[in-house]
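Q: Joint fold for the lines below.
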Amino acid sequence: MTYNAQTIFEFELPSSRMLCYFDADCKKITELHPGRKLIFVTDSNLFRLYGKYFDGKHVIVVKAGEEHKTQVSADVIIHHLIQYEADQDSLLIGFGGGVITDLVGYAASIYKRGIPFAFIPTSLMAMADAAIGGKNGINHGAVKNAVGTIRQPESILYDFDVLQTLPAEEWVNGIAEVIKYACITDPVLFEMLEKFDMHQVQTDFSLAAMLIERCLKIKMNIVIQDEKDKGLRKKLNFGHTLGHAIEILHDLPHGHAVSIGMVAACSLSEKFTDLHFSEALRIVQLLSRYHLPVDIETDHAKIFEVLKQDKKRKGEEMHFILLKKIGVAEIYPLSMDYIESHLKEII
Amino acid sequence: MTYNAQTIFEFELPSSRMLCYFDADCKKITELHPGRKLIFVTDSNLFRLYGKYFDGKHVIVVKAGEEHKTQVSADVIIHHLIQYEADQDSLLIGFGGGVITDLVGYAASIYKRGIPFAFIPTSLMAMADAAIGGKNGINHGAVKNAVGTIRQPESILYDFDVLQTLPAEEWVNGIAEVIKYACITDPVLFEMLEKFDMHQVQTDFSLAAMLIERCLKIKMNIVIQDEKDKGLRKKLNFGHTLGHAIEILHDLPHGHAVSIGMVAACSLSEKFTDLHFSEALRIVQLLSRYHLPVDIETDHAKIFEVLKQDKKRKGEEMHFILLKKIGVAEIYPLSMDYIESHLKEII
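A: Joint structure:
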C-alpha cells in the first residue's frame, strides 16, 4: 500500500464524530477550516524546529517534556486562550507528541466548559496511540494523569513528513504501543512486526503509516464501543499498570516502562490465564528486537506505593490486563494483597 | 403542601440519572450510600458552623468565598483525594453554597478523569439553582467560570433545616434566581412571588421548599432537553450576561448583579422583543420587593471589556436572553458593536 494522497477516515463515536485526515499536509490545515480562528499549541522543542510553520498563526508555546504536563502548563494555555478571545467557534490545535495532545485535549475540555480541539501528532507514540481516543490529562505530583477528562478531538491530521525530525529514541518509545496493539488484538500485526525491524520502520514512512493506520483503527474500534472506559477499553492498559509505576519511579520514557510492564503482564498471564511460555518468549523477543528494555532492577515497596494511587485500582482489587494468547487479552482482577506479596516475582 | 417526609425525585438525563432526596435529613447521608467511601468538601465558614456534622467523616475544608473559587482550591481538593485514595467507587459530596457546588463538581469531573459526586446545598442560591444541572467551574483571574465542565451530580440532598444558619443577605442573593425562573418560564410562580415577601420566605421553610421545588423542576426540565447548552438552556442566562460583568467590576453578590442584569435585559426587551412597559415595571417592583438592587452607577467601557470575555459571545455577536412577556423568554443575538455603543442606555 502506498501513502501519497490524502485519505479521510471518519469515526462515529457515541458523543461525537471524529475525522482523520490521513497522510495529509499539515500546511493545509488552514484550508481545512475556513473562517475559523485556529490557535496552535506546541512545545518549545518543536517551536524551534518548526518556527516557520507557525509564522502568521496564533501559537501558544509550552515547555517541552513530561515534567511540564501539569496544571501550570494548562493554566498557561488558558491564559492565552483568554487573550486570544477564543470561543466555541475557535479550534485549538495541538501540534506535538503525547504530552502536547494530552495537555491540549485537557485545556480545551475545561476552557469555557469545553471548546473544540484537533491534533497534528508529531511522534510515533502520539500518532499510534496518544492522540487517539479522547483521554487527556495532566500529572499531579507523582501521580500520572491524576487529572483529566475524556473528550474527543474533532479531527486528527496525520502528516508523516513530520516524522523526519523524530529522534531515534522516540521511534523506540512509540513502537512499544504498536507492539501493545499487536499483543492484545492483532496476531497478524504481531507477525508483521516480527518480520520488520526498528531501522526499517524508521526509514520507510509508508511502512510506519501502515502500522499507524492499523493501530488507529484498532483503537477507534475499541473506543467506539467503550468510550467511557467501563470495560473493553481497559484492555488498552496492557503493560500500563506496572508500566506507569516504573515510569514514575525510574523516570523512564513511557514506551520503555510499558515494555517492562508488558513483560510483567506476560509473567502474570503464564500463571493466571495460561499464556504459553513460547508466546511470552515471542513477546519478549519482539520487544528486544525493537530495542525496548524487558526488565529492571527496582524497589518493590516503592512500586507498590505508586500502584496504590493508580486510577485502575478498585478498592482492594486492581484490574490487570492479561493475555490468553498473542492477540487475545482479558481483564483480570488481582487483590492488592496478592500484588504486594508477589511483586518480586512479577517484575 | 407540607414538606415533612423525604420525597425522591428522579431525573433521566441524556448522560446519566440524577436523584433528588427532597426534604431529607443530611445526617442520613451515610445510610443512603452503604459501603461507599464518602468524602465531604465544605468551606471554612460552614465547617465552623457544622463541625460536629463532620465528626468521623472524611472532610476537605477549602477557604470560603467566591475569591477562592479558583484552581488553587481545586488543587487542594485533588491533593486530598489522592491522600484519601479516592476512586470510581468513592463519592465526593459538596456541602455548601454555589461556590462549593461549582468547585466540587469541577474537581470531581477532572480527578482521575471523573469520579461520582453529590451535593448537599446549604444556601437558597445553591438549592434553587447552582447545585442543579451539572455546570461547574472556577474563575480564572477576572473571568468568571472561565474553566469548568458540564457533568451531572449523582444526587442532590435537600435538607431545609440547614437554611436556619443562612444569613439574611444570602436569602436575598438566592431569591434573585427564583425570580429569574419566574420571569423566563413561570408566570404562576411570578404571581406567587408577588403575593409573598422576603420575610415570609425566610421564616417559612415550607414556603421556601415549595419555591425551590418549582425551580428545581423548571431547571431539570430544561437541562434534560439541552444538557450541553446548545440552545434552550441558554434561556437560564437571563440577566446573567450583563450581571456577570457587573458582578466582576463591582464585586457584588451574584444575586444582586443578576438583578441589575435582569433589569437591563428588560430594557433591551422593551426595545427588541416588545416586552410591555407594565410587565417590565412588575419585574422591577418584584426585585425591589425582595430587597434586590435594580440599577448601578458603572464604568461602561470596563463593562464592555469584561463582556468581550464572556463564554456566551459568538465571534462578533453575543446572545442575550430577552423577554416577550413574563414567563416567555427568547434568545436574541446582538452585535458587539451595538452593545458597545448602546451600553449607557442599557445599564
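Q: Anything notable?
A: The longest strand of chain B covers residues 317-325. The mean pLDDT of chain B is 95.
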